[in-house]
Amino acid sequence: MSISKTYSPKEAEDKWYTYWLEHKFFRSVPDDREPYTIVMPPPNVTGVLHMGHMLNNTIQDVLIRRARMMGKNACWVPGTDHASIATEAKVVNMLKEKGIEKKDISREEFLTHAWEWKEKYGGIILEQLKKLGASCDWDRTCFTMDEALSEAVTDTFIHLYKKGWIYRGIRMVNWDPKGKTAVSDEEVIRKEVNQKLYYIRYKVKGEEYKADEENPSTYITIATTRPETIMADTAVCINPNDERFRFLKGKQVIIPLVNREIPIIEDEYVDMEFGTGCLKVTPAHDLNDYELGLKHKLEVIDILNDDGTLNNYAEIPELIGIDRFVARKKIAVMLEEAGLLEKVEEYKSQVGFSERTDAVIEPKLSLQWFCKMSEMAKPALDYVLNGGVKLIPDKYINTYRHWMENVKDWNISRQLWWGQRIPAWYLPDGDYVIAKSRSEAAEEFRKKQVSVNEADLQQDEDVVDTWFSSWLWPVSVFDTTVFADPESKGNADVQYYYPTNDLVTAPEILFFWVARMIMAGHEFRGEAPFKNVYLTGIVRDKLGRKMSKSLGNSPDPLGLIEKYGADGVRVGMLLCSPAGNDLMFDESYCEQGRNFANKIWNAFRLVKGWEISEEAGDNQKAVSWFESRFNEALTEIEECFNQYRLSEALMAIYKLVWDDFCSWYLEMIKPAYQQPIDKGTFTATLQFFENILKLLHPFMPFITEELWHDELFGERTATDCCIVAAYPVARSVDKTLLKDVEQVKQAISEIRNIRNAKQLSPKEPLKLVVRANSGIDYSQYLSLIIKLANISEVDFAAEKPAGSVSFMAGTDEFFVPLADNVDKEAEIERIEKEIIYLQGFLKSVNAKLSNERFVQNAKPEIVANERKKQADAEAKLIILQESLTELNA
User: Fold this and answer.
1) Domains of the chain
2) What is the pLDDT of residue 822?
3) Contact of 340 with 200, CB cutoff 8 Å
C-alpha cells in the first residue's frame, strides 16, 4: 500500500475514532488488571467546547491513553453537570422567545421544557470532545440529574441531616436578583467598576443643624457608594481611637429623608483613613455590617425585594417598587434638594457579579439550608497535608490549608426549579421533616406524634446547590446505593475503581469542588476519592489576557482542529502548559504541532521508500547509538510523567523525534542515491519507528494509529492497534557511546559551519585532521564523519597542518586544510571571540564552585558536572591560546 504524499488529519481522525468505538477500546469493566481511573470534571450541560476544556481534556486523555498502553484497566468516566442556574436561565430565555413566562406555568410544565432543552442541547460538548480524540468510556456517561444520581443526592441530604450537619436558618448570602436565587462564592465574579462615592450628612440628635463646615458638631458626613440603602441603616460606627469623633460618643444621629434615629456605636473595625472615618451600618445589606450588627445587637431592616426593587421598609413612597439602581439616582437628587448631599466623587471599586446572569450580587439575609463544614473539613485537610492526596503543583497546599482552616458553613439551597429538590416536607403551620417521599414524610411526622394528612404535606420549593451533587461524582458515577448506606461495601464497580487515580481540574475550584469531593469521599467511603490532583493553569492569549468571549480573543477550538488537525492542536496546547502555571496560547503552537505531524509523516515516507538489501551494512554504530538515545530519552520522559510534567515529557519526545531520529539517525543510515539499505538496519529502524509511535500515541493518537497500520509493519489484526500496544520499557543505556557520538555530531556540525562560512559546495570533499585529547577512538566513527560531513580523508596527525581552519569538539582539536582559502585575520578573530566566551563561562562556573552553600547543598552529581565543565573549559582555553600564538607567530 502506498502512502500519500501529505497527511490528511480529518480523514484519519474520523476513521480511527469510529474504529476505536466499534471495537470498544475505550470500554472498561472490572477484571484482574490494575485499574487506572479518571472521572471527568463534568462540564455544564449548557456548555460548548472552549480552550480551557481543550487543555483539561487533552491532559486527561494523555494520562488515560498512556495507562491503557501500560496494561492497566483504564477507565475514563465522562459526564455533564446539570448547572442549575445556567440551565434555568437558558430555559427561561427559550420560553420567553416562545412568549411564555416562567411565572405563568407550573413547576412540572417548566421541568418538561427543561428536560426537552437538555435532550436537545445537553450533549453538544461531549460530542465535541470526541473530535479532540477523548477516549472516554462513553457507555458510562453520567448526568448529575440522572435518576440514580439524584436519588444519591437525596440520600446524602438525609444522611447529613440525621447527623446534625444540615440545618435551616437565616444567614447572609450572595443573592442574584435576576436569577432570584442564592449563589455560591465561586459563582460571584469580582469586577472593578466605576462608581460614585456619595458624601451624605446625618444630623446629630439634639443639635440644631447648620449646613456649613463651621458647625461640624451639628452633623456627621458619611461616604457611601450605596445611598439607596440608608433607609436600612440601624447605626453609625466610629473607631473608638478616632479623636475627631469623641463628641459623638453616646449620641444618636438622624437618617436623612426618613428622620429615623439610630445610635452611634464604636468598633475598631472602622478604618479611620477611609472616607470620612464614619461608617453607616446596614446589617441586612452588607456582610461586614451584618457581623457588626450581631456583635452590637443591632436591628436588621431588609429594604429589598428578591428582584432587587425596594420594598415597603424603604419608607419613602417615591422609591418603593423601584429598582435599586434607579432608586440610587433618585435618592441622590432628593438628598441634594434637601441640602444633605455634601459632594459626589468618582470612585473605583470591586463589585460582585453573578457568573450566570451578570446581575450585580446583593448581600441578603435569607432563610436557607446550610451544611456544617468544620467536622468534614478536618479529615479533608489531613489527606492533603499527609500526602494521601497530592496537589500538583504543591504550591497550592497553603491556599488549600487556609481555606480549610477558615471554612464556613455551606449554603446548599437554591431558589430554582431545575435541580434536585430539597427533601423537606412541611405542614401548613411550618413544621417540617426530612424524608425521601411524601409517604415517608407522613411516617416521620407520626413518629413525632403529629397527626398528618398526606395531602397537606408540601415539599420544599428549593433545590440543592449544583455542587451538592457534583461533590459525590467520584463515587456516584460507579455506585449510588452507598449514600443510603455508607457502611455497605458497594457494588463491584465502586470496589474496583474507587478511589480514582488522577483528577485534572482548575485551581479556582480547589475548595468549592475538590475539597468537597474529598469530604464526601471520606464520609461515604472512608478514603479520599483520588490520589493526585493535577491543577491546570488559565488559558491566556499571548498578551497575557484571560481568554473570553467579551474580549474576542478566544479561538474556536473546533476551527483549530479543522485547520491544524486534532493531533496538531493537542501538541500545541501541551507545548505551552506547565502544571499549575497559566498557558500563554498562541495559534503558532498549533501550527508547530501540525508541522510536527508532517515531519513524522515524511520521515515514514522516507523509510518506506527504501529498497532492502540482504548484504550486511556498516550502520551498527548508528543503530546502537539511537537505541541508547531512545532509552535515555524514555527514562527522562518517564520521570516527567511521574512528576506530572506533561509539557516537558512532550518536549523530550519532540526533540527525540525531530532532532535525534529525523535530523541525525535517518541521515546516518540513509543509503546513497538509488542504493538499497541493509536488512539489519532497516529492521532496527522499523522497530525504532514503532516504539516512537508508541511514545507519541498518548499525545498524537490519530497519526500514530494511521501509521501503525501501514503494511510496512506487517499484517495487523483487528485489535492489534497502537491504542493498546505495550508502552515501551526503558532498557540499558551506553553512556560512553552517547557521549562519544555527541562529540562526533558536534564535529560534523562544525565542519558544516566551515563549509557555509567559506561558501564551499556541500559536494566538495574535504580533508580532516584530528588531534584527539579526550581518548575517544574516532576511527570507530569514521563512516559517520565521512558520510555526514563529506570527508574524503581523515588523518590522525599530531601536528596542525598549514593553511587550515581549526575548531574544537570537547577537548579534541580538528583541522580542515583549506590551503589558500584560509583567512588568517578572520581565524584569529574567531579564536579570540571563542576565548572571551570561554573565559566568561569559566568565571560563572568558578563562582558556583567557590560558593560553599552550593557545594554543600547541591546534589553530588550536579557538583561533579560543574567540576567537569570547569576542567573542560580550562583545557579548551589552553589549546585555543596555543593556536592563537601559532597564528600570530
Assistant:
1) 9-154+467-557 (3.40.50.620), 164-178+364-384+394-464 (no CATH), 190-358 (3.90.740.10), 571-733 (1.10.730.10), 765-888 (no CATH)
2) 58
3) yes
